[in-house]
Amino acid sequence: xxxxxxxxxxxxxxxxxxxxxxxxxxxxxxxxxxxxxxxxxxxxxxxxxxxxxxxxxxxxxxxxxxxxxxxxxxxxxxxxxxxxxxxxxxxxxxxxxxxxxxxxxxxxxxxxxxxxxxxxxxxxxxxxxxxxxxxxxxxxx
Length: 141
Description:
Helix content: 55-70%
Largest sheet: none
């Protein structure tokens, strides 16, 4: 049983596409296909030493499409400039995080040294045992 079309509010206008296709879509069987072709292509590209997707690194993305006859390079294009800025920002972030790690490691080493010194000071200023505990080392006669 195929449902009928809904009445159109304006007779001079055609029904919206969704209303015209709705009965056909409702009656049609639904097949879902999830192919494995895309991951296979990505794996092949990685095995060949290329980027997993064609939008990744490589000469097709990084080299200019043309140059002047006299050998001058083509002016940088928008995507190249954007990627260059992203790479510079990433490099700055890596350098900043490296500095933070170095500072954190130095601070931790200083804290460890201070804790060791505090333990040593505490041990040296600790009250010394007296009396029988001192004589335990010597044999009584």
